[in-house]
Amino acid sequence: MDQRSDPSVLPAELPVTDRTRHRRLREQGSLERADLEAILDAGFVCHLGVVVDGHPMVVPTVYGRDDTQLFLHGSVAGRSLAADPEASVCVTVTHVDGLILARSVFEHGVNYRSAMIHGVPRKVTDPEEKLRGLRLLTEHVTPGQWDYARRPSRKELAATTLLALSLAEASVKISAGPPGDGEGPDAERGIWAGNLPLVSRWGTPVPDPLLPAGTAPPPHIERRGGARHAGAPR
Amino acid sequence: MDQRSDPSVLPAELPVTDRTRHRRLREQGSLERADLEAILDAGFVCHLGVVVDGHPMVVPTVYGRDDTQLFLHGSVAGRSLAADPEASVCVTVTHVDGLILARSVFEHGVNYRSAMIHGVPRKVTDPEEKLRGLRLLTEHVTPGQWDYARRPSRKELAATTLLALSLAEASVKISAGPPGDGEGPDAERGIWAGNLPLVSRWGTPVPDPLLPAGTAPPPHIERRGGARHAGAPR
In terms of Cα–Cα distance, which of A51, A48, A52, A67 is closest to A162? Predict the structure, then answer.
């Protein structure tokens, strides 16, 4: 089946374009769409890069996704889009898994998983699609809240800038494992080398002080407290 | 004293420019240089935004700093600089402190601390300055490693792209505290609301499998294991 004939399916191999070609540390690049999806699903904050008046702006924002596109909040991107509806953006999601501590400073580095998505975003205006995109975004950030909290009113929906960005053009970089100088001449130096992992966890839910005493968090929030964030360790 | 006469001192109040003016959520903006420095010091990975062939690219990279400038690794920025030495970049550092879980989906959000720095970076070429910049960067990411690991050789130094970016033009956004709908009509709904904190910690050091048995991590690494990352909670 020609996957291009079905817009709801993107190829399992990520395309190589001028923007996604891995130029260095080639071994860290991945062309697996499954890796892209795993990185997106392990986080909820991306860094959105847009060009405003010729200058790059990088703003953190939340996102959600379906199989073919990212949904994101974006007032800065909204400004860039207003100025040029064909302006492309770059969305980067990064998980820092720890430090690579080598025998030499030069071989030091960071273990991370990072995805970059390039494209021209589309402002979602259809109320039905906007509601669906906001549901996907909300459920991506905090599963269970869409059915628990009050959903957006028509007015709130209108006040929300939601962008959709195709997941077609993306690249993935993954760095994992021990330092690379364990077999070189520096190995003789008796210097300790290894990794220092960095782990994110959800803490205990903190109730709003204005909440009536005795209001318990719902199970989907309670359960999340203490859980590891950013996916399983690789 | 006119601080502009001394390039080693930047004003304690951040300047308001077209790029740093806070356009929305005004209450979250901070003009304190001390807040900027605290955010920079609580992290070590930034998202560097550059414009390459008219398109924004956002790449994660490590950084260090002195009182007036950021030092960062940047091969992508190097390409952008090669094409246009006057091209500006945007560096964003974000710490995600947790989720704001409100009574309504519309009031949901993220508690975070974020700094954006704008400017035209300078490629550091003087070997002495490069060594100093790399020391600041290394010690920022892993205090103690500069004196412990083997320092860069002349050849390694030449193979490293180091950029310096002034901290003069920057903006800070901080979002903290409970949801904002505790006194509105949604407060009557009996919905639990509050924050779900996200906490980063350093794990236990993992020795390189190639290390001779019994090689112990140095105290500065051992001590860091288990410590909280991203600064003290606010």
Answer: A48
- Tell me, yes or no, if A26 comes closer than 8 A to chain B by beta carbon: no
Distance CA B231, CA A156 (A): 35
Say which amino acid occupies A150. Answer: R
User: Does B120 lie at the interface with A, CB-CB under 8 angstroms?
Assistant: no
Measured in Å, how far apart are chain B's first and last C-alpha atoms?
33
User: Touching check for B179 and chain A: CB below 8 Å?
Assistant: yes
Q: Which residue of A has its CA nearest to B207?
A: A194
Residues A63-121 have pLDDT tens digits of 999 999 999 987 766 676 777 778 899 999 999 999 999 999 999 999 999 999 999 99
Digit-coded pLDDT (tens) for B156-199: 999 899 999 999 999 999 999 999 999 989 999 999 999 999 99
What are the residue ranges spanned by the domains of chain A? 3-201
Cα–Cα dist B228/B223, whole Å: 11
Do β-strands B122-123 and B162-166 pair in parallel, antiparallel, or remain unpaired? antiparallel
Which 3 state secondary structure label does DSSP give A171? Answer: strand
Interface contact A201-B199, CB threshold 8 A: yes
CB B71 within 8 A of CB B118: no
Fold of the domain spanning A3-201: Pnp Oxidase; Chain A (2.30.110)
Q: Are A22 and A171 in contact (CB under 8 A)?
A: yes
Measure CB to CB from residue B145 to each of A101, A148, A152 and give the nearest one: A101
Q: How far is B1 from chain A (nearest CA, A)?
A: 32
What pTM does this model have? 0.90
**C-beta pairs of A124-127 under 8 Å, 24+ apart in sequence:** A124/A71, A124/A162, A124/A163, A124/A164, A127/A154, A127/A157
What letter would DSSP give residue A152? P
Which residue carries 């060009």 as its tokens? A51
Distance CA A119, CA A121 (A): 6
CB pairs under 8 A between A and B: 289
Q: Specify whether the CB–CB gap between A69 and B112 falls below 8 A.
A: no
C-beta of residue B47 within 8 angstroms of C-beta of residue B59: yes
Task: Tell me the per-residue pLDDT of B78-131, one tens digit each, with 9 for 90 and over.
Answer: 676 777 778 899 999 999 999 999 999 999 999 999 999 999 999 999 999 999
Tell whether B132 is within 8 A of chain A (Cβ): no
Assigned CATH class of B3-204+213-222: mainly beta
Residues 27-66 of B with CB under 8 A from A: 44-45, 47-60, 62
- Cα(B12)–Cα(B34) distance, integer angstroms: 7
- With CA atoms as reference, report the closest residue to A67 among A167, A216, A177, A202: A167
